Amino acid sequence: MCVHILLAAYLLAAQWLVPSCSASSSSFHFHFPFPAAAGRHDYRDALAKSILFFEGQRSGRLPPGQRASWRGDSGVSDGAAAGVDLEGGYYDAGDNVKFGFPMAFTTTMLAWSVVEFGDSMPRDERRHAAAAVRWGTDYLLKTLAHPGVIFLQAIAPHCSLVGDPWKDHDCWERPEDMDTERTVYNVSAGRPGSEIAGETAAALAAASMVFREDDPEYAETLLASAREAFEFADTYKGAYSDDPDLRAGGCPFYCDFNGYQDELLWGAAWLRRASKDDTFLQYIQNNGKTLGAEDSSNEFGWDNKHAGLNVLVSKEFIEGEALSLQSYKEFADSFICTLIPESSSPHITYTPGGMMYKPGGSNMQHVTSISFLLLTYAKYLSKSSHTVDCGDISVGPVTLQLEAKKQVDYLLGDNPMKMSYMIGYGDRYPQRIHHRASSLPSIKDHPQRIACKEGTPYFNSSSANPNPLVGAVVGGPGEDDAYEDDRADFRKSEPTTYINAPLVGVLAYFVGNPNPDHTRQ
């Protein structure tokens, strides 16, 4: 991801809250200060394309079934400089760098999408989604299995970054051509990174549930490695951003602004979900307060897991299996209430066209991740008599489903620009996205090398990208709903893996449930 997106997002985070009006009655139907979406969308088509996107982000040797055929092999020697094999994984956005922290979160959310909504996916898309998860987990397993002294001392390193982000961002070249330094960074007992290790544990544990029936041996490997990653995270506590060398590689692109404590709870929560091991239930119960489970947050993303954690953990309480987790349900309710304009809670900003909005750029990451939590929480609530208590009002699952539908329909074209923000979906979508591989001639059509600075004319060109990155969702419009389709405006025009990962689950839900019952609360 380009420089400054995330700094701006966090520096401006306080603007996320706006005053709200008090509700005047104890029950209500959800009303927004903008028109309801009117379009009818092909959620199945959008789902297929949202999964296909990940094939365009692959690093390493591409498999025979590669459908994004304009891509070629890249990064095949990643890790060689350090004597390890780190081939594979995903480029995080429109660059050629593999950042371990957002990649692990991407994998977690892909896996969660399959776990919660895989039953709504057509069989082929379920298979493609599982393949997308596995491309991530195969790489994450490599970061836990480095040979050498560290491994033999039973201290698992966790690769946080492959590639020099500063040098990479100074070039506009295809991943197949990249000649910038492929620096390897890692964390260890002496240089901890609990947030990376904790998120890796979450990703592997969640993914183990995806493969439990079809590949139980692989699932067991994932779960065992998740335990190992979590033990490392919990034993050697610390944030990678606190280490000067690691900070130089990861910041300001993916600084850990939120601390590592939420990833410890997040990793434990996924291990509890995947293993049913009471050890992790006790960890969640005993450490919730000290690790900040009650921290109020109305965002969910690669750095801040609190809202997702509370939704995930509340499942056991809602289903009556762990009444000791009631506080997590209360924390989840508090998060949901910030999305309800009629609640007395301070709530998020909506654009005039109805999109959830947070300053800082790459706004669609908030739209997709929050929509995923709305649908997941609604799923849990719908299997019980529980509702969301927002003070003077009570909110039921259909309200949450309808709001998620408004958001995804906005993304797909029901917006003031009359534009889909998913490449290849609908009749009108961005043509000049901020993405190196998409904007440069395919290596299949132009096998001659395009060096670092030789790609600059393509960056500056007003022509459409020659290789449509089908399924990619761009950062999206600003607070005025405007989108200029400008390749240079990376805050709006750059896609990321962690925009798409939760969207896979959202779209899968609407494939199976295209019309939530708006006559109910």
UniProtKB/TrEMBL annotation:
Alphabetical list of Pfam families matching this protein: Glyco_hydro_9 (PF00759)
Gene3D superfamilies: 1.50.10.10
EC class of the enzyme, as a word: hydrolase
Residue intervals of the Glycoside hydrolase family domain: 43-507
Enzyme Commission number(s) of this protein: 3.2.1.4
GO terms, molecular function: cellulase activity
Catalytic reaction list: Endohydrolysis of (1->4)-beta-D-glucosidic linkages in cellulose, lichenin and cereal beta-D-glucans
InterPro entries with a match to the protein in the record: 6-hairpin_glycosidase_sf, 6hp_glycosidase-like_sf, Glyco_hydro_9, Glyco_hydro_9_Asp/Glu_AS, Glyco_hydro_9_His_AS
Annotated signal peptide: 1-23
GO biological processes: cellulose catabolic process
Keywords: Carbohydrate metabolism, Cellulose degradation, Glycosidase, Hydrolase, Polysaccharide degradation, Signal
Catalytic site positions: 434, 485, 494
Family label: Belongs to the glycosyl hydrolase 9 (cellulase E) family.
Name of the protein in question: Endoglucanase
Organism: Paspalum notatum var. saurae
